[in-house]
Amino acid sequence: MTQAREVRTTCPYCGVGCGVLAKVAADGAVTVRGDPLHPANFGRLCSKGSALAEIIDLDGRLLHPEIGGKRTNWDDALDLVASKFSQAIEKHGSDSVAFYVSGQLLTEDYYLANKLMKGFIGSANIDTNSRLCMSSSVAGHRRAFGSDTVPGTYEDLEKADLVVLVGSNLAWCHPVLYQRIVAAKDKRPGMKIVVIDPRRTMTADIAEMHLAIAPDGDVALFSGLLGYLAAKDRLNRDYIAAHTNGFDEALAAAPSLADVAAWTELSPETLSAFYALFAASEKTVTVYSQGVNQSVSGTDKVNAIINCHLATGRIGKPGAGPFSITGQPNAMGGREVGGLANMLAAHMDIENSEHRDRVQRFWASPAIAEKPGLKAVDLFRAVGDGRIKALWIMATNPVDSMPEADAVQAALAACPFVVVSDVLARTDTARHAHVRLPAAGWGEKDGTVTNSERRISRQRAFLPLPGEARPDWRIIADVARRMGFAEAFDHQHQAAVFAEHAALSDFENGGARDFDIGRYAGIDAEAYEAMQPFQWPARPEGRESIRFFDNGHFYTPDRKARFIAVRAHEKAAPNPAYPLTLNTGRIRDHWHTMTRTGKSPRLSQHIAEPFAEIHPLDAALHGIADADLVRLESPHGSVVVRALVTMRQRRGSVFAPMHWTDQFASNARIDTLAPAVVDPISGQPASKKIDIRMHKL
Ligand code: SF4
């Protein structure tokens, strides 16, 4: 009998990135507890993290490679993938192929996928489900700071006198971070919380103020705040003069209080109370999440928030700053390796020829991508209209999670060649694969992830690889070698991939970019195994190591931050055929399309079936009573869910979670309702403002 052992790893769910201790008993039974030494959670775990041991069984797993639904061996599967991609590239060009990857991948997987597509295939057609999560924040950061830098840390939230949570149900979606704020507020009852959300979520229960804002009212709200700060002489004019550009233009775009009230549907008194609190609280952190990002004006919302922090100099200081919280465990790691179609590795810019040249020389690659590739929505459109001849989907389920999900399904069904690498055999996406490749899951693979505060932590294996499953990085390297790139993909260990990623971050850099983990460039397998969680930048000895922006220097050419003049769009007239607004989101105990959390009966006890939160007056208008079955319809699809009539919902709005698929409930795929409408700058879909109608079944 083997001895019991405990392995230090990281939770695979949300962007908080909690440390987990996984104990494997002598009989093989696994239990988990929070890692008391991990700086993200100090021993805490939420309900999902606590149930991790319940989702690691092999039920439903893809354990062998398959071609055409039939078991095959790795060599045949990999040969076919490599030859189909090579043939498509040869016949139709490098932009005829694409990868759609995931914030669930580890950084090492993400790095090699990006390297293969951008540096060796020579296309930037690699996008990720993180496009659906935080790409508006990326775009907003780059506009304001010249870099995709998240300046905040979790400690800042605990040190703040005012925490403003915008479009963020932290209590359910980032529970351990929420617990940290609750604990900080218990210690310092003077700390104030404001929640800005159309819906009164559980998060609002600890807030001094809940602003039930009209959907997409955030640009007006924060532009109005900028105007208020100027009118009340609460600006930091020295900071604005020394460290920023564009203030006057941004201020000129600020609406009047009356206009803000009209846009947000908040009373002037409520607005003034919030503005006064913000103006008076030097230590303010503004946290934003999907309610900000998933919008046609997501990037403008981010910049409207950042503008207020720049105008008050509340950035780069303890307890102050704008703070984007990511949804997925490794959305940040994906950004670091350039896993978005419009980015290059190590936070370099694909549209900058010097950056392209630098990355190409580092990789010694034959064909660097010359222009941004297709972002997620456009990528699946290109699959649908036949421009993409070969598509590889890794660790994600777009048939259920993309907007216009039925159109995505039809596109995959018509695509000449689809590869899916996943842990599960029969997701709604995997059903459409010509080749299925069995990937290693959480607990079986080794690598790194980066959480929302830029902290890189190890995920460690504590289980044997089941069947013939392989880590994703290895599958990608196996295909790359077969495509003729053996030398550049000869990594024998995940540590070698991480070391290369770290070396690229420091290559001809000299600390000139924000993302720099050059200290790890020479890391070997032993040191990688022992790696402790750390935050970047992690620069070589003697090089400046900083709290971002504490010196007032940004990553723009003149080192000054940029105000962006943002204006609220005209309010769209109500759509008489679809008069209600659907807001989609997560619930506390399920994750994404439930491929893992759906395995735990304990997690399903919290909320057992798909539902829609409806305001009592809307329910009455439609003859709907609590617990009735209702049909929600948009021009793109329809679903059937249980009515939950509640005053927590705004009049005219409906909330429904995005988790359920046909595997768990029939006719409840919420993303079939969402239109493929995106923010024009970030390309992020607007999943929180969907025109629908409803009726009782
Ligand atoms: Fe995992 Fe997020 Fe819960 Fe932490 S808060 S245990 S990272 S799901």
Automatic annotation (TrEMBL):
4Fe-4S Mo/W bis-MGD-type domain ranges (all copies): 4-60
Record flagged with keyword Iron: yes
Coiled coil segments of this chain: none
Gene Ontology MF annotations: 4 iron, 4 sulfur cluster binding; metal ion binding; molybdopterin cofactor binding; oxidoreductase activity
GO BP, one annotated term: cellular respiration
GO annotation, cellular component aspect: membrane; oxidoreductase complex
Keyword Iron-sulfur: yes
Cofactor(s) this protein requires: [4Fe-4S] cluster; Mo-bis(molybdopterin guanine dinucleotide)
This protein's UniProt keywords: 4Fe-4S, Iron, Iron-sulfur, Metal-binding, Molybdenum, Nitrate assimilation, Oxidoreductase
Sequence similarity: Belongs to the prokaryotic molybdopterin-containing oxidoreductase family. NasA/NapA/NarB subfamily.
Protein name listed in UniProt: Nitrate reductase
The organism of origin for this protein: Oryzicola mucosus
Parent-protein start and end of this portion: 1 to 697 of 884
